[in-house]
Design goal:
The complex is a heterodimer.
Chain A: E1 8-14, E2 17-23, H1 29-36, E3 55-58, E4 61-64, E5 77-79, H2 88-99, H3 109-120, H4 128-134, H5 146-161, H6 187-191, E6 207-213, E7 219-225, H7 227-230, E8 235-240, H8 241-246, E9 278-279, E10 285-291, H9 294-301, E11 305-310, E12 334-341, H10 343-352, E13 355-363, E14 366-367, E15 375-381, E16 386-391, H11 396-406, E17 415-418, H12 434-446, E18 450-453, H13 456-462, E19 465-466, E20 469-477, E21 483-495, H14 508-511, E22 522-531, H15 545-563, H16 567-574, H17 596-607, H18 612-621, E23 624-634, H19 642-648, E24 656-662, E25 668-672, H20 681-693, E26 700-703, H21 721-748, E27 755-758, E28 761-764, E29 770-772, H22 773-781, E30 795-800, E31 809-819, E32 825-835, H23 842-861, E33 893-898, H24 915-932, H25 942-956
Parallel strand pairs in A: 1-5, 6-18, 16-17, 21-22, 25-26, 32-33
Antiparallel strand pairs in A: 1-2, 3-4, 3-5, 6-10, 7-9, 7-11, 8-10, 12-22, 13-20, 14-19, 15-16, 15-18, 20-21, 23-31, 24-25, 24-30, 27-28, 28-29, 31-32
Helix pairs in contact in A: 2-5, 15-24, 20-21, 21-22, 23-24
Chain B: H1 2-8, E1 13-16, H2 22-27, E2 35-38, E3 48-51, E4 54-58, H3 63-68, H4 70-75, H5 77-84, H6 89-94, H7 97-103, H8 109-116, E5 120-123, E6 126-129, H9 130-135, H10 137-140, E7 145-151, E8 155-162, E9 169-178, E10 181-187, E11 194-195, H11 197-205, H12 230-254
Parallel strand pairs in B: 1-2
Antiparallel strand pairs in B: 3-4, 4-7, 5-6, 5-7, 8-9, 9-10, 10-11
The chains are: A alpha+beta, B alpha+beta.
Chain lengths: 957, 255
């Protein structure tokens, strides 16, 4: 019964086949299924039985395979998603998830399916609450669970009605163009567990890297002894900063230069690939251990001996300025002191106006926590001198450029970067981190492929974090509650080093958004970006705009309270009226479109704002408090015009590229420089091309995430994919239509101007002669009888650079019920009405909103990255202590839209990816304040709310 | 017993049941072990039975099996309810009662139930009240837990204020009316489950929520950690006690 540490043979029946695996007795069932047997649908998300990405069926019951030893499964039968082909419950689930858009990135999906498969095998149609309770064992960061719940119920109904016959077949749509909630092209492979995520790649000569990280917040490395680790059998190398110095490798730097008020450049300190001499936060990489297996590398990494001389650390942004400078060459821990707006006009408004409402606010530090942790697999082909990096990124071309230009690995043309399926990002995978650079460099050093995958603990410690502001803000109003000015002073925590967009997020992305959708004539914002002994802070869904919206919408509620106005009425008096659009707020932007009062009034109606008092009385009757909270927002996204970005300090342009390539047989490849990690571009980009060109939808293939195939592109962030990348698709499509028109005119022997192009046919309106696009394409590739001055072929590229940002806007209404005795907040309803302009695929847009709202509610109520204030140790290092939103903590979201078209991009669309995360935190916190009569810091945990209720009662008595 | 002989021959051994506590703990470096001795195949650690006012549950029974067991539901429905709220479906499918008691985490739901139902741990041929088991844990951990026994109460209830991240009890309160009198036990508030004997006595005199007012609770000694302050935990204890008593009174009235 005792297990020796020798290898042992485990016999399993896996998906019906007998398998024998030689394994280490310490191996988990997860690692054996995934790494030995190659079942990549079974995924690692936390290794602590929390996330459910590794769920499989063991002897008839679902289990978390990360928390079972392979040896414990001896002689057992295991079933994974790969084994469910032909199963009727799986078929119903698959149909349900496609129909209800129940998945986005698809990383958590197999685990979710395995779990709910067991539920549906009970043969009932569960209600929403039961499904939500059942999903306690699964974390999903993309969907906000809303559509997962609907998908499960949908599947149960299919099973109950025995309507499965059709479910396996492809759905036939009447239309495939813009405005249709098409089932996603991506879903079949993701539902089958056949996504191609970075860690799924494995090469014959695969080695594995593990990083040794700083265990202290701040100190000097006195000794770094790798000899014991080197001696571990199976270890190939241990690299430290010394080795990198030999190759004079550079490090990814901040790519957004903001000016200090002093007129000097910002004081950027970039993170070295591996710590050189000192460490500045818990989790900073110090050494890289490479071994034949990940398990050996992990054991060896524990043998690396680091002796530190600890220094006094600081994790608190408010204290940073008064602490000893933590970087050599800096006399203060301030990277930049930045200002925007007109202080003089704010001060004169203050002198003239009657009311000034002031709040001290904190915006809590959170982490993106995508279900797929960061991973990289580097290869070097000695014969050709080419590098290939498979990596979890939102922008493969930027990775390539950084690897070449900043790290100095090789000329850009000798580096290929591939990121096929990426399991959620939310900003955290924009940046080029040291680990992926090192994996690629090490592949050359060792002549073998080198792979690394972050553990969840590493993800908590070493991914960039978001938010973390300390703010003093005031709103100046007249007697009627009309806003006169906003003044904001913020200390923004940048972490220990300046991350690539670390300077942009708390400056322009934040300061410019502080006037919101209101007629506020003056504003002023002062930001100090400070260094602390924490992981670098950078973009997280919304990136500066949630922080700004939180400040403004908190101030407005406080003002309503102090002036005795209703929270809706004060907003109604100040929203920019439709007649004033396009509107130029004092931040220098131009809101090109929008009807803020339209979504505002609609949201009030949908949320039952009028009837709230009756619901409040009902709650009070049950001994509870009830509150309703509003938040309006408008944001500048779809970044962005390169010229403006350049003025604001960007080193890069922010256009997007698309190549549309017709093949001779008339099928279409869309090669986009944009990137999808759950947003469904394979579907939506094909929809807009279908709308433009009339090509059969099933003949369109979208390619992204591969620098070998796509044009140079800027990737996805800032809600830019559709509005910039999709616009490039349209512009390229229109180039093809024009070229085709010339060919068609030649074929029909008429003037090109006489031809209309509709539904894939060129037609002479007068003569009614016509030729189909397919024939035109054929002619372009067989140009035997062809216009003289025209090149053959049907391929066009567009580099689309927008002339303005897009300005989505919306109104969100949150209702909460609070248990006075425990402080527990239940979000009882959540209503959102947003204006995203033209919507290409409504189901996908709703899904983006759901996910953002869930993250926003998470930030408001549950999530916070915490460091020990004294030691600087990371307290929240797993899902056991970082409270992610789960299905049972969230209500069903009521989302709908109004529509004013963006006037300057050819889609007419506005970015939608970040809105939920922008609007939800203030809506939730305003609802709590409405319920209990005082404001609570985020996250409004039960204890914080409980304390606030008591403190407020003491104040009142 | 073979398992115990094997245990004695290893330098730093641990028993493993479902592994739902021990494997994540080993993985995160919170625990170390030289050898893991798997108990899940042992048939005599299974089974549920009732005899002479006592419910006996085999240590290898999973939370899911206990939640679904009709004997348990009939004898002590509050235990079924407790079991169905542990972790999630997969953890319940795998995690065992014996494993939960052996791990005896600060916030163990089962240890509150065991203490609240005047229960006992049967290990190494001995029957130890949970208090004694915890006191002698070093020595007791050599022995395989075979089964757990619970006094069958007239009625009982378990209420938990769960941690938002882990789902573990920040405070869990088990209240039972046993033939021997009222018992109120708490979990999550210290390094071991704890009986609120003042309240038990007050409730024995008068089973009413107002009796809680007679039993001042000191914050001293109540756990104060990253998850909750002692002051908040103390307030939760009182709230849960009131709700538990009200629930039991309500159940009586409705019968």
């Amino acid at each position: 019964m005792a297990q020796s540490h020798d290898q042992e043979i485990v016999s399993l029946t896996v998906n019906g086949k007998a398998v024998e695996v030689v394994c280490d007795p310490r191996d988990t069932l997860l690692s054996v299924l995934r790494e030995r047997i190659g079942l990549t649908s079974v995924r690692e998300g936390c290794l602590s039985a929390q996330c459910g990405n590794c769920i499989a069926r063991l002897d008839g019951q679902t289990v978390k395979t990360c928390s079972i030893l392979a040896a414990q499964a001896q002689k057992s039968s295991v079933v994974t998603i790969e084994g469910l082909a032909g199963d009727n419950i799986y078929a119903a689930l698959s149909a349900g998830f496609k129909a209800e858009h129940g998945l986005q990135c698809g990383y958590c999906t197999p685990g979710v399916l395995m779990n709910v498969h067991e539920l549906l095998s009970e043969g009932r149609v569960p209600d929403q609450d039961e499904v939500r309770r059942r999903l306690r064992g699964n974390l999903c960061r993309c969907t906000g669970y809303e559509n997962i719940v609907r998908s499960v119920i949908h599947a149960a109904k299919i099973l109950a009605s025995d309507a499965l016959g059709e479910a396996g077949d492809d759905v036939v749509n009447e239309r495939y163009g813009i405005g249709v909630s098409l089932e996603r092209v991506e879903d079949s492979r993701l539902l089958a567990g056949q996504g191609r995520f970075t860690d799924d790649s494995a090469h014959r000569d695969q080695l594995h890297a593990v990083f040794v990280r700083s265990s202290i917040a701040f100190g000097d490395i006195e000794e770094l002894d790798c000899s014991r680790a080197m001696a571990v059998q199976g270890v190939r190398a241990v690299f430290t900063a010394q080795h990198l110095a030999r190759d004079s490798l550079g490090t990814p730097a901040c790519s957004w230069n903001v000016m200090d008020v002093s007129g000097e450049a910002m004081r950027a300190v970039s993170r070295p690939l591996l710590a050189t001499g000192s460490v500045h936060y818990v989790g900073q990489p110090i050494a890289m251990v490479i071994a034949d297996t990940r398990a050996v590398a992990e054991r060896a990494a524990r043998q690396v001996n680091v002796r530190y001389q600890a220094r006094v650390s600081n994790v608190d942004p408010a204290r940073a300025e008064s602490c000893e400078p933590m970087h050599e060459g800096l006399n203060r821990n301030i990277a930049f002191h930045w200002q925007i707006g007109d202080l003089a006009s704010v001060e004169s408004a203050r002198d003239a106006a009657r009311h000034s409402v002031t709040l001290a606010l904190k915006n809590n530090r959170v982490t993106a926590a995508p279900m797929e942790t960061r991973a990289a697999n580097g290869q070097f082909d000695k014969s050709s001198g080419r590098f290939t990096l498979r990596v979890t990124t939102q922008n493969p071309h930027i990775v390539r450029r950084v690897l070449s230009e900043e790290v100095g690995l090789a000329p850009e043309s000798r580096i290929d970067v591939i990121s096929e399926d990426v399991g959620g990002s939310f900003g955290s995978k924009i940046f080029v981190y040291g680990e992926e650079c090192l994996v690629l460099w090490a592949a050359r050093e060792l002549g073998s492929a080198v792979k690394w995958r972050a553990t969840r603990r590493e993800a908590f410690a070493a991914d960039v974090h978001g938010r973390d502001h300390v703010t003093q803000a005031s709103l100046i109003l007249d007697d009627e509650g009309v806003f006169q000015a906003v003044e904001v002073k913020t200390i923004a925590n940048l972490g220990a080093f300046l991350s690539p967009f670390g300077s942009l997020v708390p400056t322009f992305n934040y300061g410019m958004m502080l006037v919101g959708p209101y007629t506020i004539p003056s504003f002023f914002c002062d930001v100090k970006g400070v260094y602390t002994n924490t992981s670098p802070v950078d973009a997280y869904r919304g990136a500066g705009r949630p922080e700004a919206t939180f400040v403004l919408e908190s101030l407005i509620d406080q003002a309503a309270k102090e002036l005795g106005l209703d929270a809706a009425e004060i907003r109604r008096r100040n929203l920019i009226p439709k007649e004033q659009i396009p509107y130029q707020p004092p931040n220098g932007l131009v809101y090109d479109s929008g009807d803020f009062l339209a979504h505002f009034e609609k949201a009030l109606a949908h949320s039952g704002y009028e009837g709230f008092m009756a619901r409040r009385r009902e709650s009070e009757g049950a001994g509870k408090r009830r509150g309703i909270g509003l938040a309006n927002y408008v944001e500048a996204c779809g970044i962005g015009p390169s010229a403006i970005a350049g003025v604001l300090g960007a080193e890069y342009g922010l256009w997007e590229a698309a190549t549309l390539r017709f093949t001779p047989t008339g099928t279409l490849e869309i090669l986009t420089g944009s990137h999808a990690h759950g947003q469904g571009h394979e579907t939506t980009f094909a929809q807009i091309a279908h709308e433009e060109l009339g090509v059969a939808f099933e003949n369109i293939v979208v390619v992204h995430g591969d620098t070998r195939r796509t044009p140079v592109g800027m990737g996805s962030y800032g809600s830019r994919s559709l509005v910039v990348g999709g616009s490039a698709v349209i512009v390229a499509a229109r180039k093809l239509v024009e070229k085709g028109r010339t060919i068609a005119a030649y074929m029909l022997d008429c003037h090109a101007s006489a031809l209309n192009f509709e539904h894939g046919v060129y037609r002479n309106a007068e003569s009614q002669q016509h030729v189909g696009l397919e024939d035109v394409i054929l002619a372009a590739y067989a140009p035997h009888d062809y216009p003289e001055d025209l090149e053959p072929g049907m391929e066009a590229t567009s580099f689309y650079d927008p002339v303005n940002f897009t300005y989505p806007s919306g109104t969100h209404v949150c209702e909460v019920e609070i248990d006075i005795d425990t402080g527990r907040v239940q979000v009882t309803s959540y209503t959102a009405v947003d204006d995203f302009g033209v919507v290409v695929n409504p189901a996908i847009v709703d899904g983006q909103l759901h996910g953002g709202i869930a993250q926003g509610i998470g930030q408001a109520l549950r999530e916070e990255v915490r460091y020990d204030p004294n030691s600087g140790e990371l307290i929240t290092d797993s899902f056991w202590n970082y409270a992610m939103p789960r299905a049972e903590n969230l209500p069903s979201f009521n989302v709908s839209r109004t529509e004013t078209h963006c006037l300057h991009n050819p889609v007419g669309a506005k970015g939608c990816g970040e809105s939920g995360a922008i609007a939800a935190p203030p809506a939730v916190i305003n609802a709590i304040a409405n319920a209990i009569g005082c404001r609570v810091d985020m996250p409004a945990t039960p204890e914080r709310v409980w304390r606030a209720i008591r403190a407020n009662e003491e104040n009142l008595s | 017993m073979d398992a115990e002989r094997t245990f004695a021959g290893c330098p730093r051994p641990r028993y493993i049941g479902g592994g739902q506590t021990i494997l994540p703990a080993l993985r995160q470096g919170h625990l170390e072990a030289s050898d893991l001795i798997d108990l899940s195949e042992l048939k005599d650690l299974r089974g549920v039975s009732v005899s002479e006012g006592t419910l006996s549950i085999g240590a290898s029974e999973t939370h899911a099996a206990i939640a679904a067991d009709s004997t348990v539901r009939k004898a002590i429905p509050s235990l079924s309810e407790l079991a169905v709220n542990i972790g999630d479906a997969q953890v319940r499918n795998r995690g065992t009662l014996g494993g939960a008691i052996a791990a005896c985490e600060v916030s163990s739901d089962w240890s509150a139930a065991l203490l609240g139902l005047d229960g006992a741990v049967h290990a190494g041929g001995e029957k130890l009240p949970i208090d004694h088991y915890i006191d002698s844990k070093e020595a007791a951990s050599r022995h395989v837990i075979q089964r757990l026994t619970f006094q069958i109460p007239y009625d009982a209830v378990y209420l938990k204020h769960a941690n938002a991240a882990s789902g573990h009890a920040i405070v869990g309160l088990f209240a039972a009316r046993l033939p021997s009198g009222v018992r109120v036990s708490l979990t999550g508030i210290g390094h071991r489950p704890w009986r609120w004997q003042d309240l038990e006595k007050a409730l024995d005199r008068h089973f009413h929520a107002n009796s809680i007012d007679e039993c001042p609770l000191s914050v001293e000694g109540v756990l104060d950690d990253q998850h909750a302050s002692a002051q908040y935990r103390t307030a939760l204890i009182i709230t849960l006690a009131r709700r538990a008593v009200e629930r039991l009174v309500g159940q009586t009235e409705s019968h």
